[in-house]
Structures are given as C-alpha cells and as structure tokens.
C-alpha cells in the first residue's frame, strides 16, 4: 500500500505562484492557524496517511520514551514545513490556551505513569531569572498542571545566593515560593520535602549544577539534556534519520520536512577565528538549498541561519544570505554571536537551511510553536514579531505570543476534509513537531548511553 | 502517614441541617457542578489526599487494564457520593462538552497504545436502534474521536436484515454509513475492510451475536462485558472491595462512597414469584441504611432501588420505600419490571441502597454522569429530569443532558482551595467515578477468566 509521491510530482510550489491575498486571509489571533493557503500536498499526504502515521508513532513510542515535555519551533514556507529548534525545557506554558490545560494534565499523568509511577512529590527546578514575570507565570502553570496530575510540587531554586524561601509573584498574579535546594547525601529536596523526582525547567546552559550531579532521584529530562551537553547539530543528525523514515512511510521527499544543515566546531567570533570553516559550510548549505529550489522551481533567495550549537533563548542567531556576509560580519554582529545565555562563549555553530515563514498574524511575521507532553500534542502558540522579516529569527525581544486553539466545533460531515482547514493544518503541525520530539527522544537516549559509558570509563580509570 | 478520619468525626450531615438556599445556588446549566453546598468533609479529604489518591490509582492501573471506555452514574446526597451504575458501552458522547473532545482523542490514543498498538483499522459496532438520532450522534462523535486518534473507522451493524450499506443521518447532521458485518472464517469486517479490532458500542443485551463469537480480532470491551453475561451485583461486589481499599487509604467510612446492596436470583414479576426473597432483601438493605442514618444523625427516609441485575437503558427500575410496597406491586409496575431491553425477561434483581440526589439544574432533579476513556476522565454531563423526585431513577424518557465543563479559568493563588469550588467538586466526582471504573476493570478480568475456564472445560468435555 505505497502512497503516491505527491509533492515532487505536482511540481513547483513557491511564494511567487500563490494568489496574493492568501497571506492576509483570516488573521484572527486565536485562529488555529493563520494560514489557509498552500502546503496542500504535504497536508493531503499527512491526512490521507493519518492511520499509518499514528500507527508508526505508536511503534516509535514503544521503542523510545517520549521526552517528559518539549516544544518545537516550526517554520512553514508554503513549500516546506520543518522544525528549526527543539526545546526540552519549554518555558511558555503560560502562552498556551488555558482551556486546554486538562490536556496537559492528562499528558502529565501519562508521563508520570510511564516514567515514574511511584512518584508523589516532585521538585520543580526553574530558571533563575526571577525578574521575568512571564517566565514565572510559566512555572506557575506548570506547577498547576503537575498538581492537576496529582503530584505535590515544590519549587527548588538554583539561585546561588538565595538565603531563604522567597515568595515571588508571576505575571498572572500567582504567588510562587522559591526555596533553596538542599542536598543530603545523594538526595535533593527543599526544607521538609523529600521529592521522589526532580523536574527540570532549567536548560542548564551554565553546566550541570554540582548540587544535582549524581543524585539518586530520577531527573526529568536527564541532566545530560541540558545545553552544557546537548548540541543542536546532534539533534538534527538524529532528525535526519527520523525524517527519512517518515518520508519513506508517507512517500515524500524528506527535504520537505527537514532543513539541510552543517556545523563548524571551532569558531571564535570575537577573534574572527574559524571564518573559513564557517564560509565553506555556509556555501555548502546554500548550494544544497539552491539545488532543491531549482528542482521544485522555487524562485526565492536561499538563506541560512547560523546559530550557537548549544544556544537557547533566541541568542546567538544570525541570518546569512551569502558567503560574502560571513567574511564581512560587523563588530556588533560578532559580539552578538560571541556569547550567549549565562555568558557562555560560542565556539560551535550549526549552519541551518533558513526556512521562510509565510505565516502572518495581525500584521506580524509569525511562526508556530507546538507544545508536547509525553507523546501528546497539548497546545501551541504563534510567536509573532512585527519588527522581523520572513527570513529572520523571531525568538527575540518584542515577540508576542498568540495561543493556538484546537478546533473542535466541526460538526459538518466533511469536516475531516479539506487540507486547508485550520484543524487539519494543526494536525500536520502536530505530526512534524512530534517527529522532532521523537528525534529528541532518541538523541537523549544516546546522550544518556554515552554518559553511562564515560562514567564506566572514569570508574575503571 | 495515616489521614485523620474526617467524615464520621465531624458528625451528622443531612439535608435537614443544611441552609435552605444552597439548593438554589448558582444553577447555571453549563456550570461544572450545580452544587456548591455540602459534601465538604469527603471533598476536603479527597483534595487533601490528592497526591496519595493519584499514586494509588497509578498503582491500580498497572495491575488492572482500565476499560476502553465507561460512564458512571453518580448520586450525591450531600452526606454520600456514590456510583449507582457503571456502563461499559457508554452512549452519550454527544452530550459531552465538544470543547473537550481533544481529551477523548488523547485518551483513545492512550487506550490504543496500551491495548492494541498495532491497530490501524477499527470496526465500530453500535446499537441497532437507528431511529434514535441522538444515539446516532453519539456514534458519530465516537467515530470522530477514534479518527482523531488516527484510526480508520467503519461502522459494522448487527441489524439482522440490513441488506446493504445504509446511510443514516444523526441528530447533529453527521452522516453515518452502517454496513452489514461480514464474517470470513474467524475474522469479521465489512465489505473491503478487514479491521484489526472491534469496538463495541452495543451492550449485547440480547446475547453474544453468533457473528462475533470466537473471532480472532480483539473485541473491546470483551464480549463477556455485555449484559447477557455481566451482572450489576457482581460489579458492586467488586466495588465493595475497591471502596474499602480506597476508604482505608483516605481514612473514611466506606459507606460514604458505597451503596449497600443485596440480590435476588429467582424472581418473576409477571407471575408474582420470588416475592419473599425480594421482601427479605429489601428489608435487609433498608435496615442497613437505617443503621447508618442513625449513626450519622440523618433524618431522611431510607429507600431502595430495585433493578434488573442485567438491566440497561434505565429499564426495569423501581423505587421501594417499605416491604409493604413489595407485597403490593400493582400490575403496571410488575409489567414494567418483568421485561427489559430487547424483550429480555427479568429473573435476577439487585436491591440497592437508594441515594437521594440533592443536585438540581434549572429546576430539574439532576445527577452527574462521568465519562472515562482509558484511565482518564474525559467529561461528563448532568442527567436532568423535571418530572422526577430526588429518590427516583432519572434515566427515563424526558431526561435532558447538560454538559459538565472542566473549569480551567482558575488563576487565583488559592484556586486549589475550597472544597465547595466547582472544579474541586468535579475532581471528587472523577475520583469516585474512577473507583467504579476500577471495579469494572477487575470485574471484566474475572469474567474473562471465568469464560476462559469454561472454554477449557468445554474443550475437555
């Protein structure tokens, strides 16, 4: 029962050939998607093969434990729908549609049942930036979700100089008690609270904190998932295989769901070192894109995104349209690229095919971000930026967030029908986001295995 | 960490001692619950012990496979909250809040992942009454949920004389194609469709259909869950144990969540046979209730509900307030009790403690019905009847259905707080309903085991 190869056969699909008004169509913020235009081939294939796709995912989730939670930034260019970043410490639960928190609660119950059924008490470890009240609201929502799943939650802070439990107020008015983490032997907790598991909502950009290293309680996600260990290039290497398997399953060109990428291991933007490596790899990725654009008759200008390989928070990211630009980076850009969150210097970068976003919400450039817990899509939002172009990173100051809704008021007989329908587009987004979550699951397995091997070697040394 | 025994200690709790106006408080149909009054002790215990309760359920669901789906009729008398009927072929998915269908989709995905991960195609077998357009809408919603979970669904009808695929239109406008079930060897399907599993939404009151007997495909729920095999008294026997375990866990008197019951195996209402048995058991149950009412200082009049032990659709049910009533049943009542769905004669009855319902929606007597799929509460509704009293069965012609919502707009810091809050009451309803679903899980396990033993005996005979 092989599916017909739909996308390549129907030929060119580009911004240039689309009716002009689809970009302005139906731009209500709370719409499920802002687009009702193209992408019909991929969506049609995904919808037609829905039963096979879900069956395939069920098989994958039997082999690989889904991340406890994750969020995936997608870019939808009309001819391509691809993940560009996969976050294992999602910080935007406050931006999800609050009507769908019960979905998060169920998914959290499922994750706990699967990963740590004996857990009653959880220590939630957030980021340290207590002045970001929206981030604190994310922590508050997350706490509520975990409590909804029947867990007792307290918040263990990694703030180095936190002298005592400190109450902070989040942007939504929730009060949170941040308590200093206490370690006794190989267990951590807060005063009077011995949790069965630790849930990280801190991406550990600054390294694995000593107080958490080697503890006997399970840590979710595993400590090695933090950005001091994790690399985007490793994630997208694994994603290559996942995308290939998926593309074979549904009979499409994997490129349609997978951005080309390369990497450089030794750059120093401040000292202008590693420029040749960067230029060569930018040229390699641009050439690959050019070839694909030619194959599909796409008239757009290829571009790449250069990012810190361990970067987060939208820091250390630039758009590059030609090799010349690499050679002529100005001081300001080089400074921006040189250090990222928590002052970490950037020496490794990923050079990723840039995917135009053709989504627009309320006049701002937009990209969908899909949230998952366990194996389930639990919501999402549009990241919208009025000051950014369709070939730029939108995860930067000034971005706004518009919740994505699941459409459920569909009672007409053909509601499963047209690919352009918002609920169907959201289904497709959920499929591609789950491909990235699956890649993250395999990636974390590999990191845990590698870490175990290193520990054995250290023990034998 | 034993919990204090809260309910008995705080003493009498009865309709008589409650402020009069709580019955009229906040009776908006779409409210999560119609009550904001008493039940505070049980709710307080349940909320205080939430982490332990969810931990306990996780353990139970590791031991016992949850029913694919179920619905539980609850009665809330203010001093008691108990299940009175557990349905393994729920027929009211059309009455759930459509906003929460994504919860059903996730739960269905979870059930499929757990029970039959290899399944892609499902044959849905509904009841035969095609003139009940609301029931057909239930089938349509169920089909949509299963499709949402990535299954391909066709509807196999047991209608004996269905000559060919027949399109019917449900009350919501959905069109359904009912197709004659075709059996080839030990597999069933419909023309051109070989499903991996059969999902029953038909309670098999008339017996296990020959066309489904002994098929190799998994049947959900198992064929022995049908009312030709299942008995309410068996369910409530198992529930006795579940309620005791739960009551021990949270430190309450199990009676608070468990109706007293007894049974009679040989009655014939038409011929006035078995009257002595019925009278003796009615007296036994009434005496038990009297004792409990005395213990808690409850001033209400005890009553029992006599029901066909294999009855469904609200048929074969009567309210009995004294033994004299049993001796003086009029012809009309005896006829009503003599036969039930599909003309099945009634010979076995369950005599169950009547639980007053003190819930009232829009001036009608109301009782909550909670829906579950897999281990998850996915929604519910109030069954409301303006023509019935608070000691009568509400599942009868003239009943209306008002969806229960999950409250999610709770953003105040103390939102987990007061027991009377609607979301908290719904949580408590979900806990008690899940106790009944757990009893059903164990009950079906026992039925499957017994059936397997019978088959072995038959094979050896």
Give the helices and strands of chain A as they follow along the chain. HHHEEHEHEEEEEEEHEHEEHHEEEEEH
Report on the biggest sheet of chain A.
6 strands, antiparallel
Based on DSSP secondary structure assignment, what is the total number of beta strands of chain A? 18
Q: What is the mean pLDDT of chain A?
A: 85
Overall shape of chain A: globular
Helix count, DSSP H or I runs of 4 or more residues of chain A: 10
The protein's oligomeric status is homodimer
Helix and strand composition category of chain A: alpha+beta
What percent of residues of chain A adopt helix (DSSP H or I)?
25-40%
Low-confidence stretches of chain A: 1-38, 407-417
Radius of gyration of chain A: 22 Å
Task: For this entry, give a set of tags.
homodimer, 461 residues, alpha+beta, 6-stranded antiparallel beta sheet, 18 strands, disordered N terminus
How would you concisely characterize the structure shown here?
The structure is a homodimer of 461-residue chains. Chain A is of the alpha+beta class.
């Amino acid at each position: 029962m092989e599916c017909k190869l739909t996308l390549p056969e129907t030929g060119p699909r580009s911004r240039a050939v689309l009716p002009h008004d689809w970009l302005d169509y139906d731009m209500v913020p709370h719409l499920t998607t802002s687009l009702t235009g193209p992408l019909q081939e991929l969506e049609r294939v995904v919808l037609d093969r829905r039963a096979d796709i879900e069956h395939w995912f069920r098989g994958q989730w039997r082999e690989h434990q889904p991340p406890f939670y994750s969020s995936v930034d997608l870019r939808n260019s009309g001819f391509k729908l691809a993940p560009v970043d996969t976050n294992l410490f999602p910080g935007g639960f406050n931006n999800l549609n609050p009507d769908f928190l019960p979905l998060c609660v169920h998914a959290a119950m499922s994750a706990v049942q699967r990963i740590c059924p004996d857990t009653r008490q959880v220590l939630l470890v957030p980021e340290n930036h207590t002045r970001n009240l929206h981030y604190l609201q994310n922590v508050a929502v997350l706490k509520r979700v975990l409590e909804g799943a029947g867990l007792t939650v307290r918040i263990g802070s990694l703030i180095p100089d936190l002298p005592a439990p400190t109450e902070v107020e989040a942007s939504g008015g929730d009060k949170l008690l941040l308590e200093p983490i206490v370690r006794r032997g190989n267990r951590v907790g807060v005063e009077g609270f011995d949790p069965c598991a630790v849930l990280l909502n801190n991406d550990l950009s600054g390294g694995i904190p000593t107080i958490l290293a080697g503890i006997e309680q399970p840590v979710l996600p595993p400590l090695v998932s933090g950005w001091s260990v994790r690399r985007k290039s490793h994630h997208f290497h694994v994603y290559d295989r996942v995308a290939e398997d998926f593309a074979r399953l549904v009979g499409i060109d994997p490129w349609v769901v997978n951005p080309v990428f390369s990497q450089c291991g030794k750059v120093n933007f401040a000292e202008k070192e590693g420029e040749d490596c960067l230029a060569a790899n930018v040229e390699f990725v641009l050439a690959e894109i050019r070839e694909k654009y030619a194959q599909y008759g796409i008239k757009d200008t290829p571009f790449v995104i250069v990012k810190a390989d361990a970067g987060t928070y939208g820091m250390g990211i630039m758009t590059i349209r030609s090799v010349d630009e690499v050679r002529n980076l100005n001081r300001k850009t080089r400074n921006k690229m040189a250090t990222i969150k928590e002052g970490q210097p950037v020496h490794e970068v990923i050079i990723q095919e840039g995917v135009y976003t053709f989504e627009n919400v309320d006049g701002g450039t937009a990209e969908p971000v899909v949230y998952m817990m366990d194996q389930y899509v639990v919501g999402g939002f549009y990241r919208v930026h009025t000051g950014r172009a369709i070939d730029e990173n939108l995860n930067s100051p000034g971005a706004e967030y518009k919740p994505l809704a699941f459409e459920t008021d569909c009672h007409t007989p053909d509601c499963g029908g047209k690919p352009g329908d918002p609920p169907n587009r959201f289904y497709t987004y959920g499929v591609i986001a789950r491909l990235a979550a699956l890649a993250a699951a395999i990636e974390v397995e590999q990191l845990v295995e590698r870490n175990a091997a290193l520990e054995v070697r250290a023990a034998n040394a």
